[in-house]
Amino acid sequence: MKLLIVGGVAGGASAAARARRLSEDAHIILFERGPDVSFANCGLPYYLGGEITERDKLLVVTPERLRTRFKLDVRVRTSVEAIDRAAKKVRVRDLACGREYEESYDKLLMAPGAAPIRPPLPGIDLPGIFTLRNLQDMDRIKERMDRGVKQAVVVGAGFIGLELVENLVRRGITTTVVELQDQVLPPFDKEMTTPIAQELISKGVSLLLGQSAEAFEQGPDGRTVRLRSGQRLPAQLVVLGVGVRPGNKLAVDAGLEVGPRGGIRVNDHLQTSDPDIYAVGDAIEVKDFVTGEPTQVPLAGPATRQGRIAADHIFGRDSRYRGTQGTAIVRVFERTAALTGASEKVLRRAKRPYRKVYVHPTHHAGYYPGAEAMTLKLLFEPETGKVLGAQAVGGAGVDKRIDVLAVAIQAGLTVFDLEETELAYSPQYGSAKDPINMAGFVAGGLLRGEHPQVDVEAVLVAPGSERPFLLDVRTSQEFGGGHIPGAVNVPLDDLRSRLVELPRDREIAVYCQVGQRGYLATRILRQAGLQAVNIGGGYKTYRLFHPTANGVH
Fold this sequence. Notes:
The chain is of the alpha/beta class. Helices cover about 25% and strands about 25% of the residues. The protein contains 16 helices and 33 strands. The chain is globular, with a radius of gyration of 27 Å. The chain starts with a strand and ends in an 8-residue tail after the last helix.
């Protein structure tokens, strides 16, 4: 067997190592355009910020290690220029000397990755305007930073963009973020990004949402970024983080099928439309694990697993890729945001029925010092309770809960299973009723009809004649500190003695701070014959949708 692998990093390097473990006799050649065959691109922002101090720590494995330990023919600074599918050959160019030659194959695996998008804007090629995708990009940005940067502009508020923002601020650089959408972290549902936006602003970051760069100009002190609004931002460093484009040129030129967004089409064995050619990583179109729709998800974890599965199939194993559910996490200063499975906006686009709940627990027992709050959003099927997606934002413990829910989605678990999930408990690690259990209790109660619930958005957009009576059952002090407009305050402990004050011919939408007292109030009211529902997640969820709602309304 002669196996050629085009591209290293996560998908290609993992495929090469797996292939060697499966066959000592195979002739395996790994081509990589750059000088580094496998590096930790997720660590690049943290080297720029100084949190990672040694550049060599970003080298996952060197060409020399792959040659000696895995007996691989590793050829760096080498570009595969074309594929001749009929002859089963590739044309290769040595970038160091320009020499071209052909190499035959039995099987070919493509891991070309994705390239950062550089929109065709005026001035885009001026010095000082960078993308961050590899070690060479990182070195160029660091060299500019080391020469002295007072102001930076990051165009794009995705994962890499916000990680970079954190590290620019760490270096004492005044930073502005420009994002076309009306939220940071576009894969998340908008309300779940509110705490991240607030965290950025609290750290001195200028956040310009719903705006876009129109041109880059030479300024008196470096570059000037001109926005579509007409605003001009001075900067000595500009970094573009507006997304990536799959590296599909080799595949397109060879006549392989690609999807509408350019992702190379593969089956569940990672074979392209040519069964002797496989593709993995950021360049491919994958199946969304939840919706079943084709999508593109450029993440290192899926790429690594795809490389392993493709190598398995090449060497005769019936390995299949189940799809990508997009589990991801990002730290932004003191906050963490994570998600897995389908978001609410993805489910809407797919016209998939769903329900949702919000819970606002602490990451471990509240009585133990250091408990940090989080917000957890759970999406599930209305008929079966099957978990479809989850998002969480907070401090410590967000990673643990999203990982548990990622496994729940893979296993096809329901919210009723979450009620019974047994997780490790000690007060410094969790609670007897873990946030996973709490989300299950709220969702399970909703589906069983024990916990009638309404979403806060539905209440606020209802026409006046149809809008329910808003009842705030928090204390008068909490109510005085801020409440939903139009709400009437009857504290929970006074509720039974003041039932006569509430309407019997109108639905009552009850809320508290996070939902628990609202649930108790709903039970009291319904057993007293009143039409009551609880506003899911309480006032804290309302504030996610209306972050500027301060003081008394």
